[in-house]
Amino acid sequence: MKLFLSIIISFFLFNCSFDKKTGIWKDENNDINNVKNDTLKEFKKISASSDIYNKKIFLKQNSIFKISKPVSNIDWNDIFYQNNNNLTNFEYSNLNQIIFKSKKLTKNLINKYKLYRDGKIIISDLEGNIVVFSINKNKVVAKFNFYKKRFKRIEKKINLIVEKDIIFLADNLGYVYSYNYINQKIVWAKNYKVPFSSNLKIFKNNLIVSDQNNHLYIINKKNGDLIKLIPTEETLIKNQFINSLSVDDRGNLFFLNSFGSLYSIDINTLNINWFYNFNKSFDLSPSNLFIGNQIINNDKYVIVSSKNNTFIIEVNTGSIVKKFNFSSLIRPIIINNVLFFITNNNFLIAINLETKNILYSLDITEIKNLKIKNFTNDIVKNIMILDSSIFVFLKNSKILSFDIYGKFKKIIKLQTNMQTYPISIDGSILYLNDKNKLIVLN
Predict the structure, then answer these.
(1) What is the DSSP letter of 55?
(2) pLDDT tens sequence across 148-177
(3) pTM for the full predicted model
(4) CB 400 within 8 A of CB 391
(5) pLDDT tens-digit series, residues 137-154
(6) What domains does the chain contain, in order, with CATH numbers?
(7) CB distance 341 to 348 below 8 Å
(8) Closest CA to 305 of 342, 272, 354, 270
(9) Which residues does 89 contact at the CB level (< 8 Å), separation at least 6?
(10) With the C-alpha atoms ordered 360, 365, 368, 369, is the resulting torsion angle positive or negative?
């Protein structure tokens, strides 16, 4: 019965768009309003391609493209840096020297993402501990565990975001809560009884998160009250994809769910602008579940990578303006109008977003002296732009450095293993090593 209902709902959604004048739902219990057809007319029919991308393209001679100047970043309030999930060109001294190493911050396994605020690193571990460590004081200044003994044996997967002195958290047990790490007190806590499965976003007074059933929650960040619940397509078979949220400066929320649907929602009015599904199949077998990456956006485009393809989507209409037959499970980066990718089969690709043309495409497995056997698609950990150079972080704690035009520069071997995703603060790289010690690399 659930499968039948999901198919009917999905069929309805695939052939509908939403009425912007009256809103989506008048309240949480009302049906979806009647829909317009105009929005979906903007979508282009694009043929599918099953070919794996493996084409080498070399940058044309005398090609020059500008990127923004390196910036010195002082905070990392969002696990993906900022509301649109996009990184920037960060300052970096490029000395690759350890200038600070902390004591062990926790004895437990830690979550891979961390925050940084006012000189303090904020992490969570799988036991549910929130640890706030001051670099200046070289000590833990706050440690808190929300969970009671009956949850002791359950692994806690916590997503978090920070604003001023307040950390907002959502977990796989169905709890959303906020914690003042200066006063070391819970501000509010709510149990929605469905595991949450997305990153968090804050826009004005709204805290935004999604659960594993692809329901989108708009929550009052001051008291935790539910402002709006927006259901989208549910998948009966749960997969490993974590729902992705990004927000632009105008208050348009982009929501990619585990069913493979991308929604654009106006947070100011709570109306749906448009939606599009990238997984147009009712085959819900494990082999056909949607796999994708965290989305990013700028003021013109949303970038979506699915299992086999990458899409450039116009933010106002939802029109797909370009489709590529490669994908990436590593979040790409937009610097000015250039999009940088590491594909699943380890190609470094730069794309001009104005022309939608590939500027260069290089196979990083062909780098001499790399000395990695069985170079597979799980080797690459992250990509960042540091001091106008491309840094590709590998899971063996080596870093590949390229200039912005794709020319390989050098291999950097870290003195200690990298256990978490790196962040950039004040010209340095911060990460936790395999001993759960904070490392500051200059």
Answers:
(1) -
(2) 888 988 999 999 999 999 999 999 999 999
(3) 0.86
(4) yes
(5) 999 999 999 998 889 889
(6) 2-23+32-441 (2.130.10.10)
(7) yes
(8) 342
(9) 67, 68, 69, 70, 71, 335, 385, 386, 387, 388
(10) positive
CA distance 58 to 407: 10
CA distance 106 to 127: 10
Instruction: Give the residue carrying structure tokens 């940058």.
Output: 59
Which tokens sit at 222? 């001051």
> What stretch of H or E contains 347?
strand 347-352
DSSP, residue by residue, 17-85? ---TTT-S-SSTTSPPPP--STGGGGPPP-----PPP---BPPPTT-----PPPB----B-BTTBSTT-
Contact criterion met (CB below 8 Å) for 268 and 218: no
Radius of gyration of the chain (CA): 22
Structure tokens at 310: 């990458």
Of 225, 380, 379, 353, give the one whose Cα is nearest residue 299.
Answer: 353
CB atoms within 10 A of CB 164: 10
d(CA 293, CA 286): 18
Compute the residue count for the chain: 442
Q: Which of 148, 101, 150, 145 is nearest to 125 (CA)?
A: 145
